[in-house]
Amino acid sequence: MKKAKTISTIITLLFFSLLMCGAVTQTVKADELPVVCLGTSLTASQRSGTLKTLSEPLNGSSYQTITITGEDLVKYLNPSGANFTTHSGVWSSAMIEKEAQGSGINVHILDYQGRNNITTITADQYKNAALTAGISDANIYVTSAVPIDGSGALAGVYAACNKTGENLNQNQVNAAQDEMNTLSKITKENQDKSGYSDAQLNNAVAGAKQEMGKIGNNVSDSQIHDIVNNQININHLGDVINNNQKQQIINVLIEVRDSGALKNHKFKDQADALSKNIKKNAKGIFDKINTPENRNWFEQIWHNITSFFSNLFSGLIIVNFN
After folding, report:
1. Degrees to nearest 5, angle at CA 269 with 267 and 270
2. Which residues form the signal peptide (predicted)?
3. How far is it, in rounded angstroms, from Cα 133 to Cα 127?
4. What letter does residue 125 receive in the DSSP assignment?
5. DSSP string of 62-98?
6. Is 89 exposed, middle or buried (0-12, 13-18, 19+ CB in 10 A)?
7. Can you tell me the distance from the alpha carbon of 281 to that of 271, in angstroms, rounded to the nearest whole number?
8. Is residue 12 exposed (0-12), middle (13-18) or buried (19+ Cβ within 10 Å)?
9. DSSP code of 146?
């Protein structure tokens, strides 16, 4: 009798163990796995090397793969003005990994066999474009087996988002691509100028998006104009960015508004997280420019006024009226 009870207990424990294993298995859904997007033009050797490069940050965790073709370039990038065909080659590749809410967007450009082959687009430009496209709380990794500008790398990310059920608004994707191309062009035009960095430009744009997000989808053209001017000055680019470049930034942000991006309640917080991320990764630059000596005239005057009254009232408080 005692033996029968023991066997019954063991069977019961095994039954519930199987149920628990099943429950754990069910929580690992395919659409929650990181997605590695591989360019269709890669040779077998390049595909293997690219897969190794992009999956390495996962430290052995599971992932899924998709192949990006000329059809994907046509679908996601041609509406923004590109002229790809279904036969266009695709080499730049990417991996997207969703993160916990509030993590923000992080982009890492990975060397391929010891060399950075993304020749034009910067990590910060990818970050701003991803935010505009409607992507949130994600790690994005980009690489290429051959030297390439990298402008098409996000096509894979857009396709990956759709694969995992996060359907992106094409108007936002168009705005994202226009924004990435515009910021890349401005950086190229100013790359040799003293006092300029791509991080400052992208932080100004991220800051502008945050301010626009506070106002909401009804932010006016004139408000965007003032916001851009303010952010350019805050990031100490007032003597570097010319009026034509400034207008290009304004036009891009008007397009961002018109795309419907500001209707997303996450937009403002994601823009704030992006700005913090940019400043953290370029701490040396921002520590250097955010000094008392580099403050603009208004900031110095305001600091002097607040310091004067602070000292005045502090002095009054310690007076002894006996």
Report:
1. 65
2. 1-30
3. 10
4. H
5. --EEEEE-HHHHHHHHGGGT----TT-----EEEEEE
6. middle
7. 15
8. exposed
9. S
Question: Could you tell me where the beta strands, DSSP code E, fall in the chain?
Answer: 35-39, 64-68, 93-98, 105-109, 138-143
pTM: 0.81
Q: Return the amino acid letter for 109.
A: I
CB atoms within 10 A of CB 218: 8
* 30: DSSP letter: G
Is 97 in contact with 34 (CB distance < 8 Å)? yes
pLDDT in tens, 249-299: 999 999 999 999 999 999 999 999 999 999 999 888 898 776 665 555 445
Q: Which two tokens stand for residue 228?
A: 């851009």
Buried b (16+ CB within 10 A) or exposed e, 121-148: bbbbbbbbbbbbbbbbbbbbbbbbbeeb
Tokens coding 237:
């680019």
Question: Nearest 10 degrees: CA dihedral of 280, 94, 171, 279?
Answer: 10
Cα separation of 224 and 76, whole Å?
Answer: 27
What three-state secondary structure class fits 17?
A: helix
Q: From edge to edge, which strands make up the β-sheet containing 64-68?
A: 64-68, 35-39, 93-98, 138-143, 105-109
